[in-house]
Amino acid sequence: MITIRPGTRADVPQVFELVMELAIYEKAPHEVTNTPEQMAEDGFGPNPLFGLLVAEDTDTDRLIGISLYYFRYSTWKGKRLYLEDIIVTERYRGRNIGRQLFDATIEAAKQTGCTGMMWQVLDWNEPAIGFYRQFGTRFDSEWTNCHLDF
């Protein structure tokens, strides 16, 4: 049985395993500089920087998926939920767990007064693009992502 629930500090080690699984899938594990300790502090310290939903296989007590998000503000749209990552471990894909996490994230956005939700998807990730199309997602073609690393 699969349960979708808010994540806790105790979940962070398993969450980080899923993050590393995603980094390997995206061929970029060398780019991960975060640590489980930093993630625990950033998500569950005195000033949490992100929200976390987890999908748990209650038969094994293992986390099999996550939705990690935070809030941003648009001068045009107001409060928005930014979905940083939705991850389902490979063995559990194709079982509607991603849909359950996505639906729960949409509900979290609505419950917190957001006017909408935003996220990114790699242009080569056809399975993810197909998944998002099911929700009537609008894909931007005019914007270029910019990064400044310190």
From TrEMBL:
Lineage top rank: taxon: Bacteria
SUPFAM superfamilies attached to this UniProt entry: Acyl-CoA N-acyltransferases (Nat) (SSF55729)
**Pfam families linked:** Acetyltransf_1
Keywords carried by this UniProt record: Acyltransferase, Transferase
Question: What residues does the N-acetyltransferase domain cover?
Answer: 2-150
Q: What is this protein called?
A: GNAT family N-acetyltransferase
Task: Provide the species name.
Answer: Nibrella saemangeumensis
